[in-house]
Amino acid sequence: MAPLVWSAALEIGHTEIDNDHRAMVGLLNRLQEASERSDRLATQALLVELESLTRDHFAREEQLMLDIHYEFSARHQKEHVHLFDEVRAQIEEMNEGIVSAAAIAGFIKRWLIDHVETSDRQLATALARWRSNPL
Q1: What is the rounded distance in angstroms from the CA atom of residue 39 to the CA atom of residue 25?
Q2: What are the chain's domains?
Q3: How many degrees, rounded to 5, is the angle at CA 123 between CA 76 and CA 70?
Q4: Is the CB of residue 50 less than 8 Å from the CB of residue 24?
């Protein structure tokens, strides 16, 4: 699978969220490369780093949603939980030799693109509306 190249198309216009997404893309590409080299130690370390970044990122997003009383926060949070559940299951399968880390990275890349294009763009719109008229 080709690396995911960061572009303006992935930006939602919120600096902190965009920076997190950019860092995730970099980690996902490094994870894919480590998997393709069959570097198990690097793969494991990158998965841990990606999990930590993703948890912190989701916590930031969820705090923003609370701050602005975002009407779709429950649905958005469910998407976050679903990603973690699915990735945990895939990591177990990787440890059993069923899937590769590259497959996990590919899944997360596709999920991230879809999530950014839908849920995060909706959140960005709500954040912009709130910044222009905070109540």
Answers
A1: 19
A2: 14-132 (1.20.120.50)
A3: 70
A4: yes
In the block, residue with structure tokens 């926060």: 73
* Residue 114 C-alpha from the chain's centroid: 10
Residue-by-residue DSSP string for 42-101: HHHHHHHHHHHHHHHHHHHHHHHHHHTT-TTHHHHHHHHHHHHHHHHHHHHHHHTTSS-H
pTM above 0.85, yes or no: yes
Residue appearing with tokens 């509306």? 129
Distance CA 88, CA 99 (A): 12
Tens of each residue's pLDDT in the chain, 135 residues? 678 888 888 899 999 999 999 999 999 999 989 988 989 899 989 999 999 999 999 999 999 999 999 999 999 999 999 998 998 898 889 889 898 888 888 898 999 999 999 999 999 999 999 988 866
Q: Which residue in 113, 132, 108 sits closest to 27, CA to CA?
A: 108
Give the CA count within 13 Å in the CB-facing half-sphere of 109. Answer: 20
